[in-house]
């Protein structure tokens, strides 16, 4: 294990449910290689990856495939996906995100404005895996608790060491001695 600042880094692993349609896909293999518990299911939407303990779901789509199908078809697929998953992400893959891909993302944003869908443009498998794992990791209960604790500790430290806080304490102490009661 790597060490930094005297703390050991714990390798994060979780259970992932992957659509059986992605069984031979690079993304599924890469997730298995990261020591995650991967389960394949025929009952989840084709192209979807669900991090159940984090409550996030990702729909993998290739920009080229979107261009080859009609807009109604891929928008219907996305709509079914976001209706099933409260915390949903569309992972839109393209080697280069040029004007066509940005127009595609804009159309998707327009169609699902106000919904729970977020679009992640990615270029390759490693990029997609890193984004998905990072999002799943920071939304997992254990990490949220850890982040909240660190924020509270940091806030207390800032207040304790703040020159403004010290000045306010001096003013308060000075006003207490002035108080006629």
SSE series: EEEHEEEHHEHEHHH
Low-confidence stretches: 1-6
- How much is the radius of gyration in Å? 23 Å
> Which bin fits the share of residues in helices?
40-55%
Strand content: 15-25%
Distance between the termini: 61 Å
Record the strand order, biggest sheet.
4-3-5-6-7-8
What's the rounded overall pLDDT mean? 83
Number of helix segments? 7
Number of strands: 8
The secondary structure category is alpha/beta
Shape: elongated
The major β-sheet equals: 6 strands, mixed
Note the main attributes of this structure.
single chain; 181 residues; alpha/beta; six-stranded mixed β-sheet; two-stranded antiparallel ribbon; 51% helix; disordered N terminus
Task: Describe the protein's architecture and organization.
- The protein has seven helices and eight strands.
- By secondary structure, the protein is of the alpha/beta class.
- A six-stranded mixed sheet has the order 4-3-5-6-7-8, sandwiched between helices. A two-stranded antiparallel ribbon has the order 1-2.
- The longest helix is centred in the C-terminal third of the chain and has 21 residues, at 141-161.
- Residues 1-6 have low confidence and may be disordered.
């Amino acid at each position: 294990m790597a060490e930094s600042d005297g703390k050991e880094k714990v390798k994060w692993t979780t259970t992932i449910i992957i659509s059986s349609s992605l069984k031979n896909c690079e993304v599924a293999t890469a997730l298995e290689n990261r020591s995650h518990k991967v389960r394949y299911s025929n009952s989840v939407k084709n192209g979807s990856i669900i991090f159940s303990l984090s409550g996030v779901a990702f729909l993998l789509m290739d920009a080229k495939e979107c261009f080859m199908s009609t807009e109604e078809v891929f928008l219907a697929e996305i709509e079914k996906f976001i209706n099933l998953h409260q915390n949903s992400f569309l992972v839109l893959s393209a080697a280069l995100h040029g004007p066509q891909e940005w127009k595609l993302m804009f159309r998707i944003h327009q169609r699902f404005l106000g919904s729970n869908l977020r679009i992640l443009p990615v270029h390759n498998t490693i990029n997609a895996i890193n984004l998905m794992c990072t999002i799943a990791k920071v939304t997992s209960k254990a990490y949220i608790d850890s982040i909240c604790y660190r924020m509270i500790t940091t806030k207390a430290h800032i207040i304790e060491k703040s020159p403004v806080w010290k000045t306010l304490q001096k003013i308060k102490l000075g006003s207490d001695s002035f108080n006629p009661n």
